Amino acid sequence: MNKKIIIALVIVIILVLVVGIYFNLNNQKEQENILVLGMDDSFPPMGFRNENNELVGFDIDLAQEVCNKLGLQLKVQPISWAAKEQELDSGNIDCIWNGFGYTEERDEAMTLSKPYIKDKSMFVVKTDSDYSKQEDLIGKKIGVQSGSIQERRLSESEFGKSVGEVIGYTDYLTALMDLETGNVDAVYMSEISGNYIMNQQGKEFNTFDASIGEESKGMVIAFKKGNIELKDKVEQAIEEIRQEGKLSEISIKWFGKDITNN
């Protein structure tokens, strides 16, 4: 083969390698500048789809403010809530940020942020029902969201063993619709989400406190186990947002008052 041709081929190969490395580094840099937020897209008001099919909510607004602080691009990724831990472990998402309640079990499996909102659980029943306290629901059908803290509490508690049936739903709105039609006797759910859905839908239900196990310390952000660096950065950004008054503004926008932890 002609010596000039060999040199030309070598130059071409080098150029191809250089260009490939360049694009790979750029792509890696872009990936590093993206925060992929895993969420259940049917958990209002923390994160859900509005009438225009847009992903909106308190947590999304807060995450956007955090990304603005950190110079990151926010990517909101709807996931199956039942498979949220696997999505995080596999690296498909950087965090679970969508009304995610603290539990010791989750703290052992993932790296969790400090709680930023307090929430508690409640039972929701029809206005004409005879149920007014937890004990009235023994032997009854109770609806929960699949993969939720409420579902886990029922499965692990003595009270849960005493109910007639626990029915899992993909979202609370569907559970409340089934409550209206009488397919379940009560829905065991987040107070924040329940009150928001009822107000937005103009639905009237009766509610009463639940006492199944210890209530969560609050809603947290979950990161892959050991990812302390990202957790610390996000926590610091949230603290700055709190001090600037923006956290209170976001809370008032979605809840009508400031319910964030101080």
Summarize the structure.
By secondary structure, the protein is an alpha/beta fold. The protein contains 10 helices and 13 strands. It is globular.
Structure write-up:
The structure is a single chain. By secondary structure, the chain is α/β, with parallel strands linked by helices. The chain contains ten helices and 13 strands. It has a five-stranded mixed sheet with strand order 5-1-6-13-7, with helices on both faces. A five-stranded mixed sheet has the order 10-9-11-8-12, sandwiched between helices. Strand 2 (42-43) and strand 3 (47-49) form a beta hairpin. Helix 2 crosses helix 9 (228-243) and helix 2 (58-70) runs antiparallel to helix 10. The longest helix has 30 residues, at 3-32. The N and C termini lie far apart (76 Å).
For this entry, give a set of tags.
alpha/beta; 23% strand; 2 domains; D-Maltodextrin-Binding Protein, domain 2; five-stranded mixed sheet; globular; 10 helices; 262 residues
Write the layout of secondary structure elements.
Layout: H1 3-32, E1 34-39, E2 42-43, E3 47-49, E4 55-56, H2 58-70, E5 73-78, H3 84-90, E6 95-101, H4 104-109, E7 111-112, E8 121-126, E9 141-145, H5 149-156, H6 158-162, E10 165-169, H7 172-181, E11 186-190, H8 191-201, E12 205-209, E13 219-223, H9 228-243, H10 246-255
Parallel strand pairs: 1-5, 1-6, 9-10, 9-11
Antiparallel strand pairs: 2-3, 3-4, 6-13, 7-13, 8-11, 8-12
Helix pairs in contact: 2-9, 2-10
